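User: Modeling request: complex.
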Amino acid sequence: MQQLQNLEALNPDLTAEVMAQVDEIIDRNKGKPGCLIPVLEECQGVVDYLPMELLEYIGSRLNIPGSTVYGVVTFYSFFTMVPKGRHTIKVCMGTACYVRGIGEVQNRLQSKLNVEVGGTTEDRRFTLEAVRCLGACGLAPVMVVDKVTHGGVSPDSALKIIEKYE
Amino acid sequence: MSENNSKAEEKTEEIAEEKVEEKEQEKQKEEKVIPYLEDVPFFGFQKLIVLKNKGIDPELIDEYIAQDGYQAAAKALLEMTQEEIIAEMKTSGLRGRGGAGFPTGLKWEFANKSEGDIKYVLCNADEGDPGAFMDRSVLEADPHAILEGMIIAAKAVGAHQGYIYCRAEYPLAIKRLNIAISQATEYGLLGNDIFGSGFDFHLEIYQGAGAFVCGEETALMHSIEGKRGMPRPRPPFPAHQGLWKKPTVLNNVETYANVPQIILNGGKWYAGIGTETSKGTKVFALTGTVKNIGLVEVPMGTTLRTIIFDIGGGVPKKKKFKAVQLGGPSGGCISEAFIDTPVDYESIAKVGAIMGSGGMIVMDNQTCMVDMARFFMDFVQDESCGKCTPCREGTRRMLQILEKITRGEGESGDIETLEELSEVIKDAALCGLGQTGPNPVLSTLQYFRDEYEAHIFEKRCPAKRCPALLEFEVDEEKCIKCGICFKQCPTEAITWEKKQPAHIDKEKCIKCMTCITNCPSDAIF
Ligand SMILES: Cc1cc2nc3c(=O)[nH]c(=O)nc-3n(C[C@H](O)[C@H](O)[C@H](O)COP(=O)(O)O)c2cc1C
Ligand code: SF4
Ligand code: SF4
Ligand code: FES
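Assistant: Request completed. Predicted assembly structure:
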């Protein structure tokens, strides 16, 4: 318990409540070969991102060196070590979407929100991400805001769509 | 005002109406999920094996069973020996649908003969080609077919544990696979003593974490082991040393979906479809500038023309077909001159592309081929795992050159450097990602070298896609005075009045391309 309290002092997002869920995830997976990635996936689902302190904690509980955990987290694009905005905009940079003009949509979003891809707006309203093919190429060009998929977007309609998210 | 109704205005209205119509269609597209095959005309050209169960409720095992589901597994487990299953697969001539086209029966035979008490059967559902969605559709629409194919493979090689490696971007597929696995377990089709045959097979899903290279077989296995998904040199091949160093079979989603039908109807039946070297059918994800977007399943040997023009309905009006891209970042473009090429592994390779996993992207005259090459190189460079130098450094260098060319800073000698680098990377890279990474550049150079030259020597982008090479000016001769650009410009950089040509204020223009894309008479340059 000692350790958990320290964690919250180090990072306010790692509350006792959150850590209880993290522990549950670890206990359920511990001992299974290759469990690190599933544990990280589930933990990111709970905390929203994977701060350094959490990586060290997970590593020590799974008996995996912190450097290995860090190496895995930075290798896979699914993982993020920085907190995200309240809403996540994903523009699809797959071939079908690119051919149908997602590049221009991305440029407009970037200049409107004043963020680069991968960045979060200062008010933490939006995080802008580029992903490679969402498997919805039939609707190209595709943009996903939080969990809602929008097909056939144009630079203008993309800006209209995000207006609705506060 | 009505007496002012000039020709130009009529035209404007016509165009405006068309635009509205297009918008409507776009809206409908937005509301409709991926179009189903019923929506695609000329159904007659297709033959459904992999997609035969589309339309059943994928979350109800009973519906799958009602379509002859799990009969092949029963036959394989109760009536056939391992050798008989493998022989049937070899007779069928089925080749892996994940890209490389390795004969499936042979792969199973290697794993079967490989010594070891523990073996694994894996399904590659990583579908990394950015512009393809065949596997996703099969996983979502017919998950039990994959399970059944894997059960048969497990019996053939003697494996009792399997994993489906599915990319995290496909949450619905993962959900349906989970449902399918629990239903199959409940029915005694997975787990211990399946059908009372004494054969055990357990199946789990493993969720990928977003790295294209993990589609490569050895990287995929490293990833399941919980490591960074980097490829390793082969041999040893996975059939001898795969997951946790045990003999392992890895097949693609579509490959497995073919298996139950082969076991039920016989290898001879399957081998009767297709061409001499490429048997059966292939599913393509037809997208890009084509009227009917969606999945197409055709017998091997069908021509690209039939797929794109008869089934796909050709390119929408006012656009002109330019090229078709096959095989994504490992593949290449095929120009109009070769549109009658039949789709089989060898013929496609001969014209400079690859069969790949089935992504088929139609491009029109508004697509810049140099920019496409840059796009794919950006992808390869981004996804290179960094383990080997030729791929890591070579692709970065190629990307820099392509970026330079599209920025209008290309120099003579650039094309030759690209070609040299391509050869080195192809020969020296460790895995398929690097080895095939230069293909999109080589194939665009093969067919569209003049476009590269226009960029480099004339500082001109013929497709008008590279902003750095555009003036953002209106050609008053060509301008039909419709005002579409004026209405759409986000920065009010365009001035226009009825019956007057538009004018662009370059100070205000942010080069967003909207006007160029939408000008109905191609007047902005
Ligand atoms: C960089 C790279 C990415 C790959 N991605 C995939 C993929 O997403 N899906 C797939 O089935 N095969 C992919 N493959 C091919 C696999 O390595 C392997 O050949 C295939 O899954 C074997 O199955 P098959 O024989 O049924 O085709 C990829 C290969 C490479 C080199
Ligand atoms: S070719 Fe590229 S992706 Fe493959 S091992 Fe080498 S660096 Fe990694
Ligand atoms: S490129 Fe964009 S900003 Fe520039 S004139 Fe055209 S529409 Fe306006
Ligand atoms: S390319 Fe965008 S969804 Fe496939």
